[in-house]
TrEMBL record:
This is ABC transmembrane type-1 domain-containing protein. One of its GO terms (cellular component) is plasma membrane. The chain crosses the membrane at residues 12-30, 55-80, 92-113, 125-143, 180-201, 221-242. It comes from Parabacteroides gordonii MS-1 = DSM 23371. GO terms for biological process: transmembrane transport.
Length: 257
């Protein structure tokens, strides 16, 4: 058998479970309930202040969550990547261990923690829950990039007279940008589209864009929900495109003293 024949099952899987759902989303987004072509679903979104405000608010929450995860995750990944940190592999497993537990269970545990500490559920709890759930997705790609970094480049920077701060700013950080960009994408994308975390940690008092999509589908407004989903997909696509461009630029110009 030819080797390319082994790709047929994967091609069928992609066609049925990836391509067809995306095509259906596009089809429903640009049609009305009778199947006629229309832009009314997008006009409804643009003219509906609540949906538009929810979209902007969700982006803001996603940006805050991503920044907090980056500020907490990069130092942790850097420490774990150091050769003198003998238990780094064990610590990495401990960091990613929560990823093995269902996200709903982790969120319910966060709700129970806030209840035990008599802390109110709201925006603060939402950001805390987002960071708690998605922090491992920031740490692991940065750790992998730092772990695979060529140490001779760091030694070369030190031989050229760079102090530790200069070595980090001009060598380590630029070379770790691929991991940083991967972590940003892996945190930003699910934060924008999630709805269960917001519902549980705010007692349905704060609505994110994912909740708007869910409500539209549950209420039978498939066309409007598909339009909202397409808008979210376009946002995610732009995010990936932007991070890929930044990644290419950092690879071309990073690591120079």
């Amino acid at each position: 058998m030819r080797r390319r024949n082994w790709t047929i099952p994967y091609a069928l899987f992609l066609a049925v479970f990836v391509v067809m759902p995306l095509l259906l989303i596009v089809l429903y987004a640009f049609t009305d309930a009778e199947g006629a072509f229309t832009f009314a679903n997008f006009r409804k979104f643009m003219m509906h202040p609540e949906a538009l405000n929810t979209f902007v608010y969700s982006i803001g929450i996603a940006i805050i969550t991503t920044l907090v995860c980056l500020l907490l995750g990069y130092p942790a990944a850097y420490i774990l990547s150091q050769a003198r940190f003998n238990t780094s592999r064990t610590m990495v497993v401990l960091f990613i261990l929560p990823m093995w537990v269902n996200i709903l269970i982790r969120t319910l545990a966060t709700v129970a923690l806030f209840d035990f500490l008599n802390l109110p559920l709201g925006e603060g709890a939402l950001i805390f829950g987002m960071v708690y759930n998605f922090l491992p997705f920031m740490i692991y790609p940065i750790y992998n990039t730092l772990q695979k970094m060529d140490r001779s480049l760091i030694e070369a920077a030190q031989d050229l007279g760079a102090n530790p701060l200069q070595v980090f700013i001009k060598t380590i950080f630029p070379l770790s940008m691929p991991g940083v960009m991967s972590g940003i994408v892996m945190v930003f994308m699910p934060t924008v589209s999630t709805f269960a975390i917001a519902e549980l940690l705010t007692m349905n008092n704060i609505k994110l864009f994912g909740s708007t999509v869910q409500e539209s589908i549950n209420n039978g407004m498939w066309n409007y929900g598909a339009a909202l989903s397409l808008i979210m997909l376009l946002l995610i696509g732009v995010t990936i495109l932007f991070t890929n461009e930044e990644d290419s630029a950092s690879n071309e110009g990073g690591g120079v003293i």
